[in-house]
Amino acid sequence: MLLETLLPLGKVDPGLRAPETPLDLHAVGADAQLLEDIGYHGLVVEETKDDPFVIMALAAQATQRLKLGTSVAIAFPRSPTVTALSAWTIQKLSRGRFTLGLGTQVKAHIERRYGMAWSPAGPWMREYVRAVRAVWDCWQNGTPLDVRGQHYTINLMVPLFNPGPIEHPAIPIHIAAVNALMCQVAGEVGDGIRPHPVCTPSYIDEVMLPAVRAGAAKAGRSLDGFSVCMKPLVATAETEAELVPKIRDTRARIAFYASTPQYRAAFEHAGLADLADRLKLLSRAQRWEEMPQHIGDDVLHRFVTIGTWDQIARKLCERFGHVVTHCEFSIAVKSAADRERLRALASEIQAESPDRARRTILGT
Questions:
Q1: Rounded to two decimals, what is the model's pTM?
Q2: Which of 83, 116, 346, 360 has the fewest Cβ atoms surrounding its Cβ within 10 A?
């Protein structure tokens, strides 16, 4: 597996807890350089409190080899032409190191946070990705721009707004997914999927990848080079005693995810539909503090990789090595010893060849 991380590297505790302090934009370049020095394959950033394309630009300017990507940028609030230009610019700046990761967001956020009308996400994403690629094709090859679909009619590109060809025009597009329909869309038009952290290896193997293969077959596409990139749920610390609060945090995280209807399919696949129903009712009643106690050890270990720092790389490889090509994981760096520990962890995870997962993706 190739090892990537989500910023902020120095601001997040191990175990996927939320940032304790806001991202320091002035430190992005130094953090990216640290990752490159340690031996990480790449850096990805999600869209939460800062513009991911700005962060990517800061990281691109500071590094030479580190792969870069959004994990994810929210697609629908942006015109495909706007997204195309942001990705084109980062690809130029990074000299070909950028991957565009796109996500849909849920209906309530599209309607109430972005003020837009909702439409079924699968067909919308399919049209969106095709529109982005059409804009790129226009810029790179001079192909007349003529996008006509349910959501977009895009047919104007004048010289003033045409950035023209670039050296590395093949920008991979990865699509965040949980349900089979979005996986099929990724197989039709994408270069990779980004499973949600609640997607277990069996769910990826038995539900998501068959849908990807069906989409690729429908579109007559090859899946050679198709990626599965994931930031699993992890509880890790230097000692067993320090693991205790990390495990407690992940119980709360699983309970929250199980209460969310958009992730129900992953819990149904694990035989936990009743648990999801109970937790949904508790969340609607805002009884948040009661929810983690419903996550027993069997459920915990089904969704979370748990281990001390000297164990976690092996456990991640054992659990995900056959279905995931890129694993995102970080440990906060506070000392020279932490740096060397993270270097060793990166080396161990990246020794796991992604070819094993690629054979699973292809179904061979």
A1: 0.93
A2: 116
